[in-house]
């Protein structure tokens, strides 16, 4: 049975609220007091559909309201006090709703994602009717992150849903992962750091969730973040050392490399679509500019990757994953979004 949380008793400070929720779900998972749900297994790559996906498992912890998840092969609704573990590379779309008109009934959830040495934890709220948005985001790098990624990946492996020992093992793995999240958060709090501007943190979160969307551009990102494209472009370039458009293309190529290495049956045009490139031709040209080889030739020349291996288990020459994290591996906290504008032409990421 699910264990509902009283939102009125949660800390008002979003950073403290995030930690309280991680502790609550970790303890509840370990004691079997909270349901852990998984989507039905898919036999192979689901092809093109609405939504987005990540290369590592993603854990959703429902605090209040509900989230309806649409997968290529199923629809699931997550209620208060429930957990949903979405396996790697599974397309999904989200529609959120409140329980009622009272403030404590508003939609709220916590999302945890560990990949490529970077842990992303964020509190979400309903930013537009039915649409989830980031309310508070913390991104950190830590030695524990690779283990968190592996634990969630193992818990997301398909199996017989009637297997009681398997269900117990999954809950234990998720509890361990959440305990690891808490350790990472505490380890980061003890060090002196620099913090990226809140707007950049929000842009990074949107890019992470919409990397496979071929219409994603700097102008589109700016509209989502509530500022001008010029302002967002200049701010990002000043703090990150690269243009926002180049950053998006770089992350898309990183994802393409991992899909080409992991998904031998996935055609190059499908890799292009999954990574957000507008066309296979543009993807091939961009990939060749980085590697000097077409994606097909690069895939054939690449050494075999061990089955089920995560990035942490693959030698560095075989993986070129760049961590998704702010400067100096620190959390990103933001509230009000700047509305200033700067002169100049907006970048675009085709």
Unreliable stretches (pLDDT < 50, length at least 5) are 190-194, 310-350
Provide the β-strand percentage band: 15-25%
- Give the overall shape: globular
* Overall strand count: 9
For the biggest sheet, the summary is: 6 strands, mixed
On the 0 to 100 scale, the average pLDDT is 82
Spatial separation of the terminal alpha carbons:
46 Å
Task: List the main descriptive attributes of the protein structure presented here.
Arc Repressor Mutant, subunit A; single chain; 2 domains; 10 helices; 350 residues; 38% helix
Q: Layout of helices and strands, plus pairs?
A:
Elements: H1 14-30, E1 36-37, E2 58-64, E3 66-70, E4 75-78, E5 83-86, E6 93-97, E7 108-115, E8 118-128, E9 131-141, H2 145-155, H3 164-189, H4 198-210, H5 218-225, H6 229-240, H7 244-262, H8 268-274, H9 280-291, H10 295-301
Parallel strand pairs: 1-5
Antiparallel strand pairs: 2-5, 2-7, 3-4, 3-6, 7-8, 8-9
